[in-house]
Amino acid sequence: RGTVALFADFHQLDGDVTADGGKGAEVVQWKFIEPKALPTVNFNTYSHGGGYSSKNLEFWYPQWSGSTVYRFNLNYEQVGQFNVGNSSNKQLWSDPDGTFYTANWGQDRVRKWVEKGDSQLWEYYLGSTAGGVCTDESYVYAMRHSGATVWKLNKSNGQLIEQFDLPNIPSSLYGGLVCIPGRLYYADSGGNVIIYDANSHQQIGSFSVGDNIYSTAFDGSIIYTSPSSATVTRHRLVEGNIYEPAGSGGDGGEGWVVE
Questions:
Q1: pLDDT digits (tens, 9 = 90+) for 213-228
Q2: Extended strands (E) in 44-159
Q3: Distance separating alpha carbons of residues 9 and 197, to the nearest angstrom
Q4: I need a labelling partner for 113 at 20 to 30 A (CA). Which of 22, 56, 101, 130 fits?
């Protein structure tokens, strides 16, 4: 479903990425691939907004535009809910330690929260409608509903590190920002996903999901998008999973290495 259009240098960036921890630590290994369409799945996305918790292995979909977040297991079965402590959650993004972030639409802010709770750790004011938030191993990235500017924030305290613009933003953002170490994905409301190099900030590819995008989740391998319906489109972005360990590491500090 949908079409794929990749620039020639897309394949030059393919490669194994390994997080090698300290003695006895876990090793995560995965590889970028051309986006691959998978069969759709069906479950209640509760309209706008979505996310995934890598610690809990759950999909999180907020009841728009309230503060209740519904939890789904890996079989897309609803297993519970929690209150996030704020409303208009256009996107949720979780770190492996369980803390998570929200892009709060009409409140013009991104926020960081304790695991599955309503205790806020920090917030950052974007100055206009918050469209999306995601993290890689080091930073938080946030964008407004419209515009090309990315706010790169400190994970610990939410302080601004830098701002930069992305080229060729096609439409508007409804919770469709995805971070993978080395890349940013902008899933716009028109159904296009633009792929950027996270370091150069240049576009390196794009593909279409074939429908509007008003909710997005990323499970470490697959991006899930929906036009505010129970039909969820899936595209695999990496081989392996950026969150799942593949073995044990040796001595040394944690870090990402492109091979």
A1: 999 999 999 999 999 9
A2: 51-53, 58-62, 68-72, 78-83, 89-94, 100-104, 109-113, 120-125, 130-135, 139-144, 149-154
A3: 11
A4: 22
- Say how far apart CA 94 and CA 205 lie, in whole Å: 25
Place of tokens 């590491």: 249
Look at the block and give the residue holding tokens 């073995």: 247
Rounded mean pLDDT, 182-206: 97
Q: Which two tokens stand for residue 196?
A: 């950027």
CA separation for the pair 97, 185 (Å, rounded): 22
The single residue listed with the structure tokens 């899930």 is: 224
Query: What pLDDT does 26 receive?
Result: 62
What DSSP element (H or E) covers 207? strand 203-208
**Token digits for 63?**
């009841």
β-sheet with 256-258: strand ranges across? 215-218, 222-226, 231-248, 26-42, 16-20, 256-258
Other CB atoms within 10 Å distance of the CB of residue 25: 16
Is-contact 226 232, C-beta < 8 A?
Answer: yes
Cis peptide before 65 (omega within 30 of 0): yes
Please, are residues 131 and 114 in contact by the beta-carbon 8 Å criterion? no
Kindly report, residue by residue over 124-178, the tens digit of the pLDDT: 999 999 999 999 999 999 999 999 999 999 999 999 999 999 999 988 999 999 9
